[in-house]
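lol forgot to send this yesterday, sorry. struct tokens for the thing we talked abt
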């Protein structure tokens, strides 16, 4: 990815334009030498996966120019659309020049296990891959009750080395980085991690009938079985930032190879 021009990074997320994690990631990308542009949902859009929904009025999706704390001179927009839609718009002519990389996050809470399928943060990165952009999803493991002052500096500390790995990969590379919510001095070594089979918590749905009608109620609980060694959940619990390579949608040949058809 050699070029004489400054590489451009689109910074997005699913927590919304007012998330300090977004600002921290943008600051880290700027300090790493990228030409940064920030475009994120105008409101929280967590859990939307790779949805390309936007709020349309007469065929238009509104964008709201913003000035972000600590980022003077950096163009920033609150967009009335989901993070994957923002990436789609950037690749389809909105941003000129197009971004060279898409950095999504930093998410308030980890994105681990195969449940990353539902993350808007990860969905934006996977969508970027479809356009050939290198992409990184970044999450801070704050737990379900985030502290008042998350350790965003831990994300900025790990980011430069991970960006080097991202840029060294081929077009369409997608990496997912999860960072423990710890002071920098307490972080373990960066480790490559497998995705755990499920997420960090169990969700149970109950169908209840009340005075206001019928509804589904979701409850969260920590998993009773411990995480398997070497998985992202286990390594995070041990204080290690974790890095996992993800693959976007691709065809898998051979669907008929094992088909045994009886003679007619």
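and heres what i got for the seq, position by position
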């Amino acid at each position: 990815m050699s070029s004489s021009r400054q590489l451009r990074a689109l910074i997005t997320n699913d927590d919304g334009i007012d998330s300090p994690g977004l600002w921290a990631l943008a600051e880290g990308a700027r300090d790493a030498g990228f030409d940064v542009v920030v475009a994120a949902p105008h409101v929280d859009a967590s859990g939307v996966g790779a949805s390309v929904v936007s709020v349309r009025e007469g065929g238009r999706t509104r964008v709201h120019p913003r000035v972000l704390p600590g980022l003077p001179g950096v163009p920033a927009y609150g967009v009335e659309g989901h993070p994957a839609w923002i990436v789609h718009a950037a690749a389809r002519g909105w941003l000129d020049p197009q971004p060279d990389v898409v950095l999504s996050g930093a998410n308030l809470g980890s994105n681990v296990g195969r449940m990353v399928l539902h993350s808007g943060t990860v969905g934006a990165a996977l969508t970027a891959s479809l356009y050939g952009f290198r992409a990184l999803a970044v999450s801070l493991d704050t737990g379900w009750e985030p502290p008042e002052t998350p350790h965003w500096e831990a994300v900025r500390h790990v980011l430069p080395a991970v960006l080097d790995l991202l840029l060294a990969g081929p077009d369409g590379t997608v990496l997912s980085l999860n960072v423990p919510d710890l002071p920098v001095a307490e972080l373990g070594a960066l480790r490559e991690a497998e995705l755990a089979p499920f997420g960090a918590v169990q969700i149970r749905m109950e169908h209840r009938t009340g005075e206001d009608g019928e509804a589904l109620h979701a409850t969260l609980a920590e998993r009773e079985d411990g995480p398997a060694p070497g998985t992202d959940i286990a390594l995070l619990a041990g204080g290690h930032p974790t890095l996992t390579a993800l693959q976007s949608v691709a065809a898998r040949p051979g669907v008929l190879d094992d088909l045994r058809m009886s003679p007619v």
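The mean pLDDT is 92. anyway ping me if u want another try
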